[in-house]
Design a protein that fits this description.
By secondary structure, the chain is an alpha+beta fold. It is built from 7 helices and 13 strands. One of its GO terms (molecular function) is DNA binding.
Length: 232
Amino acid sequence: MRGINTDCTSCINSNCFIKKHLHLEKMQDFILEKTNYTCKKGQQFMIEGAPIQGLYFIYKGKVKVLKTGIYGREQIVRLSNDGETIGFRGFGTSNRYLIAASAIEDTVLCNFSNDVMHSILKSIPEFTYDMMLFYAEELNKSENRVKKIAQMNVRERVIDILLYLLKKFGHTNNLLNINLSRKEIADFAGTTDEQVTRILSSLKKEGVIKIINKKIGLLHVDKLNAEIIEHK
């Protein structure tokens, strides 16, 4: 990673946790202490089990968050894009990251070190309170996802992920604005590359999706939703 310059005050990511609190007077001092990096596609910037280096906020790009599963297999637990926070699960409870993270595409990151984050939390009560609510909401999302996935078969999990990608990243010319490999979809769905390939091929034959140069487009979102409606 190499350092670059960004400016919190001109950042357009209104969902960024830091951006939301720029109106607080003391925050103006802390944003001067952040560090910025660029990550190339495929580059890992957080390693599971490595010492925590503060919190990362995505200025621009897409990131996959990973955790090592059984037999050392990677499991994608979350996909994140502009404005989202990375590394919060380990921050404050451990001195090591509980997950890993790497860039899906060229990505710009903002980093606030451990010392800076601790200073913010200790000196700005409103920020600390909102962070507590943020943790509670993320825990709720995680628990709901685990419950939903446990009740789905493999086909339903793959369909659920396709709909998730559409909702989160949108589409251009009916093609998803994120290009995941079959392995990445499998790592997210908790299945194998072969099963994902078969299910995508089946969905294409049924006419509900299209695949162009490995990019996926959803042609009949209503039919896909109907297949997993009982899990929503």
